[in-house]
Amino acid sequence: MLEIDRTFSWSGYLDDLTELYDMFIKKHELPSVSADEHDWDNITPNQRRWLDEFSAAWEAEEDDLSQRADRQEKQLAELALLNRLWLESLSAAREAEELTDGEEIAK
Q1: Total of domains in the chain
Q2: Which residue range forms the structural domain that includes residue 41?
Q3: pLDDT by residue (tens digit) across 18-71?
């Protein structure tokens, strides 16, 4: 049975997959190459299936990370816009207050 550090975080998921892959190739005495670079003629059907599932998990996580990065970029842009609008509203409120104070002084 493989033992993996159970401390899980989304940001470290690819690290977890890498650790699992390294243990797999060591246990099965496979060359240390990328999962898609193995010689499919020299591995067992079970090893092929494991490598296929591993590759699918890796690609899904990479896609998810890319989507999260896109979502984070959009959120940062939204926060920047809200901040700019907030500052504009404060500036407008100060200007209105100054105009009101000036009118009272003139009276």
Answers
A1: 1
A2: 12-106
A3: 999 999 999 999 999 999 999 999 999 999 999 999 999 999 988 888 888 888
Burial (CB count within 10 angstroms: exposed 0-12, middle 13-18, buried 19+), residue 49: exposed
Across 65-100, b (16+ Cβ under 10 Å) vs e yields: eeeeeeeeeeeeeeeeeeeeeeeeeeeeeeeeeeee
Q: What is the C-alpha separation between 53 and 55, in angstroms, rounded?
A: 5
Residue 21 covered by a domain: yes
Give, for 21, the enclosing helix (H) or strand (E): helix 13-27
CB count in 10 Å sphere of residue 37: 9
E strand or H helix at 57: helix 45-106
pTM for the full model?
0.61
Let me know if residue 16 belongs to a domain: yes
Q: Do the domain assignments include residue 6?
A: no
Which amino acid is it at 69? A
Structure tokens at 49: 């299936």
